[in-house]
Amino acid sequence: MNRTTLSLIAAAAALAAVTGFAAATAPGDDGDSAKAAARLPVERSSLLCPAPSTSDLAETAYTSYTPVSQGSGSSGKAALSPATRELTDGTGSGKGKADKPVLSPLKPGRPVAGEASGAESPALVGSADGNLAPGWTVQQTTEVAAGTGRGLLGVNCSAPDTDFWFPGASTAKERSDYIHLTNPDDSAAVVDVQLYGAKGAIKSDVGEGIQVQPHSSVPVLLSTLTDKPQTNVTLHVTARSGRVAAAVLAADDKLGGDWLPASADPAGTVVLPGIPKDATSVRLVAFTPGDNDADLKVQLASPTGRITPAGHESLHVKSGMTAAVDLGDVTRGEAGSLVLTPTGDSAPVVAALRVVRGKGDDQESAFIPATRPVGARATVADNRAKGSTLSLTAPGAAGTVKVTASAGTEGGTPVTKTYTVKGGTTMSVRPPAPAGLKGSYALTVEQVSGGEVYGSRMLDVPDADVPGVPMFTVQTLPDDRGTVSVPYADQDLSVLQK
């Protein structure tokens, strides 16, 4: 047996150790594709939640949920624990990961909830393994009753990575935008933060080489990275070493606050789902990171079909420069989703929307980043008996999805309902709620057939300080990537010796 064969067997053994299953089809094998690869549940997931607020009035709810996955085993464990809070100079405070977990999920199919209060609530670092890992989802929802950044601040806790794009950030005087960087690992991460405005890259040495210590979190105020305030900027976060989770907390003096999550990876066609029907102002911000410009057709997928907004039929995005356009009340009383498609030889883009509800002094805002389709399965936690709205859009062919409402955190029986979304349209519905609901619950969306479906969930609660306009937040529903493709291994690898 030669070295090549030994290496292949070693690789298969390593794969088996990680996934519990290893496989590869020998070159020239005429077997079917089902034999060539299998999709198995992931065995470990990591999630990180940013520090929820700097307000003493903040009240935060955490809701964790793992859908039931076939083949994921009968046991597992998960926990979300406080990280050490750091200042931007790298100094830390707090006890760090040794603190008592805020959440300790017990089994798939049953959501659990935790809470925190005040400005000193830290970021959370968590992991799940076994049957609690595939599709593990945690929603962080914060209510801030008054002050700058008031409102409902919602964000899906995210997995660590090395590259993030945030179109829609701001360094304007009325905005206080912080990028929160959280490191889940045992070694320090080194991160670069770069801003791009309407004229290109904004020079700054302050954003280079930011140290994020192990199991800790660093907030960086974006306005400290430039001397010239700009209303619309794109933020690029890259990790030189290690990995981090990243999210922008945006607080506006007049429009309240919310989290701006990272956009989906640069793509030619971009979908931003779930603009509420009563949106009074919608701002689109886009950026192309490549060397070529992007020319995009702008369309709204309404309940009846695609509509081209008058006066905003197209958008030209120059390479390395942030483009922004105010679309006004583009939905005109009907919920919709924005679809950007390339015209000609157009470069990939990242994009996000800032959505405003209300008028004058009575306004609230939220963000909708470009997202991936729901794919095999997507989940959003912390749904309430009242206040949840599910938006589903099929930008191409019609698509059918199955929506499951889990049991509640304190009781209830799951309920499932199927929806078919017509091609080129957006469907906005009150989602199903579990029978006998007590507490909050999770929604899981699974693609059944047809064309790709994109989704988001809007959560709103009454705001005593802004009559008639609820505090609200929007979370997109990308595929949870709860399974991985594992090659099939034949017992006889002798054909690979040559």
List the helices and strands and how they pair.
Blueprint: H1 3-19, H2 33-36, E1 37-41, E2 44-49, E3 59-65, E4 76-82, E5 84-86, E6 92-93, E7 112-117, E8 124-130, E9 137-144, E10 151-156, E11 163-169, E12 175-183, E13 189-197, E14 200-202, E15 210-212, E16 216-221, E17 233-241, E18 245-252, E19 256-260, E20 270-275, E21 279-287, E22 294-301, E23 306-307, E24 314-317, E25 322-328, E26 336-342, E27 350-359, E28 362-369, E29 378-383, E30 388-394, E31 399-405, E32 411-413, E33 415-421, E34 425-429, E35 435-438, E36 441-450, E37 454-461, E38 471-476, E39 483-487
Describe it:
- With 498 residues, the protein is mostly beta strands.
- Helix content is 4%, strand content 49%.
- It contains 2 helices and 39 strands.
- The strands form 10 sheets. A 6-stranded mixed beta sheet has the order 6-5-16-12-18-19, with no helix packed on it. Strands 11, 13, 14, 15 and 17 form a 5-stranded antiparallel beta sheet that branches.
- Strand 9 and strand 10 form a beta hairpin.
- The longest helix is centred in the first third of the chain and has 17 residues, at 3-19.
- The chain is globular and about 55 Å long.
- The model is unreliable at 1-31, 87-98 and 491-498 (pLDDT under 50).
